[in-house]
Write a structure and sequence with these properties.
By secondary structure, the protein is of the alpha+beta class. Helices cover 24% and strands 38% of the residues.
Amino acid sequence: MLQHDVRRSDSLRPLQRPAHLMRLHALDAWVRRVRVLTDARELKAILYAGAEAGGAVVVGEEFCVFPNGAVTGVLVLAQSHLSIHTWPEFALANVDLLSYGDLSADAVMRVICERLDVERANMTCIPRAVG
């Protein structure tokens, strides 16, 4: 059914790309202002800004706030997904982007880092669907 939904519009139709262009980008980001990590509305805006900067098409979303204020949020993209998991007690956000095709992961992560006011970050890129 999801495949049908994605194909309902030419603008949402995934481009035919080789599997070797699939990548998982995993970002560990330590922030200066811990309060952003408990602000679900701001985190949603940050993810949307990153997705837009990278040329992603958002087709769905889900955000959850936990008792300690931590937030998990996911944007479902026509190109796969973008998620954030926050750890306010460590001033840490984990951001994952699984992408393929024409999506600019560098632009997505750059905007997210800027908007989170990241002090220090580590990013790993893992090729997917290899072999």
